[in-house]
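Handout, page 2. Input:
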Amino acid sequence: MTSLSASLVRGALLSPLKRAGRPDAALPPDRPTRPATPVAPGPLAAYGRICGFTESGALPLTYPHVLAFPDTMRLMTGRAFPLPVLGLVHTWIEIAPHRPVEPTEPLELVVYAQELNPHRRGTEVTMTTEARVAGELVWESRSGYLSRHAPRRPEPDPASTPSAAEAGANLPTATASTAGRPAAASPEELPARAEWSLPGDLGRRYGAVSGDRNPIHLYPLTARLFGFPRAIAHGMWTAARCLAETQDPAAVRTVRIDFRAPVLLPATVTYAADAAGDAFALRGPGDRVHLVGAVTRKG
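Output:
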């Protein structure tokens, strides 16, 4: 937690020196690594309680992300990282648990910046986390973080611009993110399964467990400094709370969650899902959609 707080301070100091959207920007080659270590039982139990996970023995699907997050922040707040960390928005996460991981297994974690892509609202970086036990890849995730700015639109070179027919012929039929995934149900049409009342101090409580004490999650005053009228819930708390409702987590092949809108605290939200919890959403008043998720299963 100390290293994560130090990273936040360093990122705040370096952010004004960085300019997002540079066409020649390069990602740092560093791969911060957490050495193979068993999971501490006390913090794990506290995380499970606040996120609603049952004590099933295996690590919650989202927990390796939390363990690796200090190293992720250390990389994203370093001088070599091209995007300013202030204002960086977590937009999506994909998780692939290759097998259940027991807390007693020494877990090695490595993080790295995978790619940088233009986005309609700025520039998005993809961060990857890998977890290994004795060299075996047991869990991995990819996350998108958006740096918002006016997109750069270079003039196309007519000589190198493909025709419409050529462009259509070159489109992939599926990506790694969508291959094999069933068509997503409308998040507004999914049946409500539960209603959760979220207290105003949820961000502080989750921050104490996860170490993520970003000011936008803590108090109305600190959130207003970044344009939010009140503190907002951590996106990874909302993701974890929804995944805690998933049936048979050992059968999960992949998870994809897209964060749509922040949850202003305090709040009352509705968890909506299909019968198996494979398509789910978190909705607010007026059916405002905060996140949508999809689970694919093995077999």
